Every structure is written in C-alpha cells, then in structure tokens.
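Example 591, ligand adenosine-5'-triphosphate.
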Amino acid sequence: MQQPEFEDNSSVFPLQRVLGSLSAYRWTALGAVLSSLLLTAAYAITPQLFRWAIDEGITDNDLKVVFYSAAWMVVAAIARGLFNFGQSFWAETTAQGVVYDLRNQIFTKIQNLSFSYHDQAQTSQLLTRVTSDIEQIRTFLSTSLMQVISAIVTLFTIATILLIMNWELALITLTVVPMSAFLMARFLQKNSKLFGQVQQELGNLNTVLQENLFGVRVVKAFVRESAETQRYTRLNDALLKTNMRTILAIRNTFPFIFLLSNIVSVIVIGYGGIAVIRDKFSLGELVAFNSYLLLILQPVLLIGFAAPAIAGAAASAQRVYEVVDAKIEIRDRSNAVPFEMCGGRITFENVCFRYPGATTEALKGVSFETKPKELIAILGMTGSGKSTIINLIPRFYDVTSGAVRIDGRDVRDFTLASLRSHIGIVFQETTLFSGTIRENITYAKHNATMEQVIEVAKTAQIHDFIMSLPDGYETIVGERGVGLSGGQKQRIAIARTLLTDYSILILDDSTSAVDAKTAAQIQEELDYLMRQKTCTAFVIAQRISTVKNADRILLMDKGRLVAQGTHEELMRTSPLYGAILESQVKQTIQT
Ligand SMILES: Nc1ncnc2c1ncn2[C@@H]1O[C@H](COP(=O)(O)OP(=O)(O)OP(=O)(O)O)[C@@H](O)[C@H]1O
C-alpha cells in the first residue's frame, strides 16, 4: 500500500506556519519580546521625567530635581540602547534559526522530489524561493514582526498613560489609531497580490539570466546577444513596473496617515494649550502629553512600514511552503523491503507509461524479460522511448500501467535508496560537480582508495588524460565541468558510476561524445566488466559495434517494442533495424 502523501497545508495562512516554526526558538523569541517590553517601558518613562523636571524642577526653581531628572533621563537612554540591542539581537538570532531550518527543509525536499516535479518546475523559480523568498521571511521575523509586537505593546502602554493623564485629550489623540489602522488594512487587502507578483517576476527574470549563463555559448554561436538582451530587458521592465506599482501603492497610503497625525498634533497643542492657560493642566503635563503623542503615532507608523514587508513575506511564505508541501510522487511503500541481491531477471510486463502532463504515451504495452548477465542494447529512432524504458527501472518514474519487476518482485516493493544504489547509471547528459576530478569520481563512494579510483578511470579510458594534467586527479573542474571536453566529462561520469556497488548497469548513450576508437575501447572494457560484475546491463547506443556485441537488442519504435533478438536475427527479420543500421553506417562514413 502507498504511504499517505504529505498533508497539503498550503491553504493554511502561510505566515501562521512561519510563526508556528518559532516554537523551536522559543527562548530567543522570548528574549526578544522581553527586551521589547522593557524598551517600551524605558520610552514610556522619559516623558514623565520631563514632566517632573518642568513641573517640580524648573517651575519650583529646584535645581536638585532638574539634576536628578536629567540623571534618570541618561539612565533611561542607556537602558533604551541596551534593550534595543537585546531586542534586535534576539529577534535576529530567532529569525536566522527559523530560516536556517526552512532552507534545509526546502533543500531536502528538492532532493526528494520526483523527476516529474523537476520536469515541470523552473530551476530559477526554485532558486528564487530558496534565496529571495526565504530572505523576505527572515526580514519579516527579525524586523516586521518585532515592529508589530513592540507597536502593539507601545500602543496599549501609552494609551493607558494618556487616559490616566487626561481622558478627554487622550480620546482625541487615540482617534488617529483606528483611522490609520483602517487605511493600513485597506492597503494590505488591495495590494497583497502585487507583492506575490514581484517575487514571481523576479523568478522569471532569474530564469532568463540562468538560461543565458548556462547557454552562453549557444547564444554567441547563434549571434543572439541582442535578442537575449531584449528578452531580459522586457522582463526587467515588467519587474520595474510592478515594483513601481507597489511603491505607488505605499506612497498613496502613507501621506494620509502622516496628515492624520499632524492634524491630531495640532489639536493636542491647541486644546492642551488652552487647558494650561486655564490652569487645568500643568506645562510639564502638556510637554509630556505631546511627547506621548509622538510615541503613540510611532506604533501606527511602524505597523504601516511593516505592512508591505508582511504582505511580501506572506506571499513569499506561500511560495516556499508550496515547495515544502509539494507531493512526492515516487516514495517508499509502507512495507517496502531493501533490495539486496540481483539475480538478473528484469521483467517489463505490458508496461505503459505517460509522462505527467503529456498527451500521448511514451511507452505502449512494452514486455520483455532479461536473463542473468545479459547485455541488452536498446535501439530505436530518436524519441522512440529508449530512455523512458531505463527511467522506469530505478523508479525515476512509476509505470502508468503494467509492472517492472526484478527477479519477479515489483520495483515498487523495494526501498528507493536500496534499489537505486544497486543500479549504476550513466546519463545521456553529463553533470560534474565543482571540485577535483577525484572528488567527482568518488562522488557516491567517498571512502574509495586511490587504486580503486585509478582502476575505474582506466576502464573508462580517462586515466592517461587525467595523468597528463598538472594536478592529475586533484585537478579542479568547474561547476559544470567546464575546461573538459564533452567526451572527457562523459568518461569521468562513467568512472564515477563504475566505482559504485551496482549490480545493474545502465548506460544511456553515454559514449556519444567520445570518438569511435575510444568508445570501442571503453566498450571492450565494459563488456568484460559487465559479464564479471553486473547481473544485467542495458546500453542505449547508436554505435553498431556496441549493438553487435549485445546479447539481445530491443528495437523500439514510437513507444512500442517492435522486435528483439541478436544482431543477426534482427538483420534477417526487421526492415526497421536494417534501415537504422544503414543510416548509422552512412553517418559513420560521413564522420
Ligand atoms: N520528461 C518528459 N516529459 C514529457 N515527455 C517526455 C519527457 N521525456 C521524454 N518525453 C517524451 O517521451 C517520448 C520518449 O522519449 P525518450 O527520451 O524515452 O526517447 P529516446 O528514444 O530516449 O530518444 P533519444 O534517442 O532522442 O534520447 C518522446 O516523445 C519524448 O518527447
């Protein structure tokens, strides 16, 4: 039975999930909130010190009170500095912790997502999510969230003090709060989509950038520099426009809030001034009240400034959790067993397969069975389904119907890790990682000895070339193996696979970039190795020599297995085989 899929939480308010992840950092988060409370207290006490200095010091000509209040003001200022530091330090520590976990979580998820997800997801969109979106979440936690918390605490503290000091004036002052809050809520409601759009367009821009970085040679070869620049500029324009729309939305809202606060300030000075003249209010109280007025506007403004960042973070969190919650199509069944021994009987039982999102089937009712130690070549025109066949053995995709079995057992019954670690596969496209050649060869077997590395490099016909490099096996290759020819990269990839503990070997057109003579040498070595070590080997090859050597050839045509047999058998029975071979002979003569 298939394990239940991940619970789809994407509908849950994404920021709520971000807040939920704070529980792992509760102590640092508590430190930040406590610092924020103390900071508010240090702010709230300062106007009272002013009132004391004016009413009991200056008015009563008491220098001692003036001196003491000044001294306490210095203490309050130092305390504000300390608590401010504490608040930002703890908030940043918490935020860094949360995004550290999130980054790891999303990376692990990307590692575990099936091929079908990666077929459809754009690499640059994923990159934007791991970098820019996560950064938005960090800013939300370290800055915006703290701004909102300290704003709320300040608002309640100051409102209480104002109400105690003069409730009438306090009520006038406090009207600014709901009015500003209304403006802010309207702003957020209207513009939340806009912030998501900014991130989406940033991702689009990164797509073009990434394609151009990877494909720089193609761009230059086809003299498409200016066309690519135009494409990038068009997307850059779109991003600029959306960014300007966000800025405009912010600018449209904030002047109203500032206007409101100025009006209230004027009312306080007017109303309070009259009260002082009529002796209903002391001068110190008016000064303190006015200072509090500035303090009470601060929270509203803080929430205002935090609002766009919160809207942006909500959109970012949504995008990040979309990846975290993405369905893993291919995973272990609950009762999966480890794959231990390979007898060599691989069976395709009426296999049909359709790629996710595709309209036609890539494989249609394919059935065959291999014998132990058999070398199987798969041949067919381009797009006939050769790679698809071998993709189903390590479960890069699962069959749409039918079954793939190893020694009679459905591949879906095995744990993925054990199944894949027994299958050595060399892909059509070679990917090397940044690091030394030795590190690349030992990618899946770090503890391999240098003798083992040299042995596989010799089999892959790359040892002599490596030794001719000044740093030998310690030569550093670029992130995509730049600096090596296509054939050299392919041979390093073959060595990398040969070093693993495979028992089924799959070579997907993996000597296509190697010259015919070297390919024949590799093939000779591999034939020997396959018959010794592997239980079954599959080779997708265009070269006649490889095909001739195979024990059996599977001939594919438009997703169907149309013929199978040895070279001689197929020469006799299959016109398609003859035609493919003929075209290859022509190709070989031409090259
Ligand atoms: N990831 C994918 N998503 C959708 N369709 C795919 C995908 N990969 C391959 N296909 C389609 O499935 C069919 C078989 O593709 P496959 O890669 O197996 O052919 P192939 O015989 O290995 O071709 P080639 O010799 O060119 O490598 C093709 O029509 C192809 O367009």
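Summary: The longest strand covers residues 346-353.
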